[in-house]
Amino acid sequence: MMKNQIIILLVLLWGALTGVNAQEAVATSGKTVSSTAGSVSYSVGQVVYTTIAGDNGSVNQGVQQPYEIFVVTAIPDASGIDLKLSAYPNPVKDHLTLKISGYESDNLYYRLFDMNGKLLKMKKVTDPQMQIIMQDLKPAVYFLKIVDKNREIKVFKIIKR
Fold this sequence. Notes:
With 161 residues, this protein is mainly beta.
């Protein structure tokens, strides 16, 4: 009799364990937001992507990678302009050289931003070849924007060692 009970217990235990699912995501953060219309739970760091559809709508859950498309040169009518811009060396250590040819303007500036969009340096471009001092900045990625009367001409992605 005892042997039959052990066999039944093992069969039930085996049946219960085969229906258990483990965690599918390693979430680094998350939260639940509720209102009178319903609630939403989310987590950051999921590695699974699924879609759940119902009569009232659908929900996409998991990692969703947004993308952004933008135009770097913002001169709408650039015909007749033989603009040549270069910033070197890249990666830079101490001094970045900005070289501009084929474009004349009294309102040409450069603006140096960090990855968070904070303006670090801004100066009027007075010479066709200028030195931008970078030795006081930490090693990181920066954006150098060349603007003319608040119109963006060109953006450089600069890597500082």
